[in-house]
Each structure stands twice: as structure tokens, then as C-alpha cells.
Design brief:
- The protein is an alpha/beta fold.
- The protein folds into 2 domains: 6-201, Vaccinia Virus protein VP39 (Rossmann fold, 3-Layer(aba) Sandwich); 209-279, Orthogonal Bundle (Helicase, Ruva Protein, domain 3).
- The protein contains 12 helices and 9 strands.
- It has helices at residues 6-15, 32-38, 58-64, 78-84, 103-106, 124-133, 147-153, 164-170, 209-221, 227-232, 241-250, 264-279; strands spanning 28-29, 44-50, 65-72, 91-95, 113-118, 138-146, 173-181, 186-187, 194-201.
- The strands form 2 sheets. Strands 4-3-2-5-6-9-7 form a 7-stranded mixed sheet. It has a two-stranded antiparallel ribbon with strand order 1-8.
- Strand 2 (44-50), helix 3 and strand 3 form a beta-alpha-beta unit.
- Helix 9 (209-221) crosses helix 12.
- The mean pLDDT is 92.
């Protein structure tokens, strides 16, 4: 397996006149110890990478997996990747936006993919939501995230970080923080700390995603209000306050509770009630 060192990264970026763009969240992971925790020593048939950059993860992935499909938004890296991945015929790079890409077109092989990525801080949430809302088959995902975003993924009910992102991810995956990562592990160093997160697919609950996420958005749309008022005033559900209270009582939810106190299973019950109501 081959790796790029900090010296390698600086040299090849300088050769091609590419400077990291803060606006695109380009802070490249250069700590080999962390890279080795992300890329397994024994891989599999297919890996998909989000945010190839200069190929820091792409290169070792190409040795660990039979096929690698990488997405990168910044076309300045085309000649950089061409040089770094020279001779690695099992890699294809797609220059497109990971927030909107159709993963079924990228990962067209039948085998479920393993996903990897050092995600840009400003776009991590929509990238993850686009990935998880795709019907693409996947086995696992390891993403480097801003620590605050990572903590939102694993937040418990009642905590400050618990919210729509926590619940939308929980619908399709279980999330675990594997390692906290210092800003000194990146070039150039970001202003924040990071964390490596593992996502593992779970079987979706017995309710559709759209009713579920509409219920979540309605509940958190006016976070400081009770659920009675939040749902009754939400454009997501079109309920009157009286209908909202009846809806909550039918789902065995306290109308005086607030959104952050509800568990994932509570939201599933609410969404199931909404789904049943809309069928009648």
C-alpha cells in the first residue's frame, strides 16, 4: 500500500499551482496514523470516496480495493490525480458535486460499496443526507467530519446537539465516533477539531422516509415550542392546533413535550400516524 506524505502533498500541489481553497473546505488529511485507521489493511471489491482532493485517500484505497470510484468537485485536481494515480487502472474519478450526485450512476457495480471521505466542513450535512437518501447499496462508511457535526450524528435525545440531522441519519444508519482528530493532522490546519465517524446501514423502520422527515422538520421547526404548537403551526403537516393535539395523543406522545425530548421510536410512531392519516 502506498501513501502520500505532507512533503509529497505540498510538492505536487506546488508543481500544479493548486492552493487549498478554504471556501471549499480543503484541509487535507496528512497524518498517516489516521489515514491507516480510515483505510483498512484488507479491503474488498468496491470503494467510493467523497472528496478525492490530491488523492491522499484515493491512492491507498486503490491498493485495498479492486475498484475505486472517487468524486471531486474541484477540477483543478484533475492533473494532480492523474499523476498521483498513474498506473492505478482500477480508479475512476468523477468531477461532480457530492451534494447532488446520483450514487447509483457512480457505483454501478452490483457489489455493495464501502464509502470513505474527508468531508468539507461546510457541506458535510447535505453530502451525508444525499448519500443516505440514495438507493445505492453500501456496507459501511467512514467519514472525517468537523467534531461538532460528528457529535450531532451521535447525539442523544435531550441534548443540545440532538435534532433533524441526528434523526435523518438514524433512519438509515447507526453512527459511532471512532477517533477524535487534532487540527494538526491536516494541511492546512483548520480552525476546528475533527472526528472520524463510522456509519453502518440499518433496516429502515416500518414507515416511509418522507412522512418521517416531515414530522421531524415540523417538530423542530419551532424548537422552543411544545409539540402541540410546533406541529399545529407547521406548513409541513397542515394540522390545526386541535388536530395536532389529537394526533399526538393518538401516537401516545405528550402534547406538552418538546421535540428534543422525543426518541427515534417516538418519531417513528408519529410518522406512522401521519402516514395512516394521509391514506384515509
Amino acid at each position: 500500500m502506498q501513501y502520500l506524505s505532507l512533503t509529497d502533498v505540498r510538492k505536487i500541489l506546488q508543481e500544479h499551482g493548486v492552493n487549498p481553497r478554504k471556501g471549499l473546505g480543503q484541509h487535507f488529511l496528512v497524518d498517516r496514523n489516521i489515514i491507516e485507521k480510515i483505510v483498512p489493511s484488507c479491503g474488498g471489491s468496491l470503494a467510493c470516496e467523497i472528496g478525492a482532493g490530491p488523492g491522499i485517500l484515493t491512492l491507498p484505497l486503490s491498493f485495498a480495493y479492486d475498484f475505486v470510484r472517487a468524486v471531486e468537485i474541484d477540477e483543478r485536481f484533475a492533473p494532480v490525480l492523474q499523476k498521483v494515480l498513474q498506473g492505478r487502472e482500477n480508479v475512476r474519478v468523477f468531477f461532480t458535486d457530492a451534494r447532488t450526485v446520483d450514487w447509483c450512476e457512480i457505483s454501478c457495480e452490483e457489489a455493495p460499496a464501502h464509502f470513505f471521505g474527508n468531508l468539507p466542513y461546510g457541506a458535510a450535512a447535505p453530502i451525508i443526507q444525499n448519500f443516505l437518501s440514495s438507493p445505492v447499496q453500501w456496507r459501511s462508511a467512514r467519514f472525517m467530519l468537523q467534531r461538532e457535526v460528528a457529535e450531532r450524528l451521535v447525539a442523544a435525545p435531550g441534548s443540545r446537539d440532538y435534532g433533524p440531522l441526528t434523526l435523518s441519519v438514524s433512519y438509515r444508519a447507526s453512527a459511532d465516533i471512532l477517533h477524535r482528530v487534532s487540527r494538526n493532522s491536516f494541511y492546512p490546519p483548520p480552525d476546528v477539531e475533527s472526528a472520524l465517524v463510522q456509519l453502518t446501514p440499518v433496516r429502515p423502520p416500518g414507515v416511509g422516509f418522507q412522512p418521517f422527515i416531515r414530522t421531524v422538520r415540523a417538530a423542530f421547526g419551532q424548537r422552543r415550542k411544545t409539540l402541540r404548537n410546533a406541529l399545529g403551526n407547521s406548513p409541513e403537516l397542515h394540522l390545526t392546533p386541535a388536530e395536532s393535539e389529537a394526533f399526538l395523543q393518538y401516537s401516545d406522545i405528550d402534547p406538552g413535550a418538546r421535540a428534543e425530548s422525543l426518541s427515534f421510536d417516538d418519531f417513528v410512531r408519529l410518522a406512522r400516524a401521519l402516514e395512516e392519516q394521509e391514506k384515509t
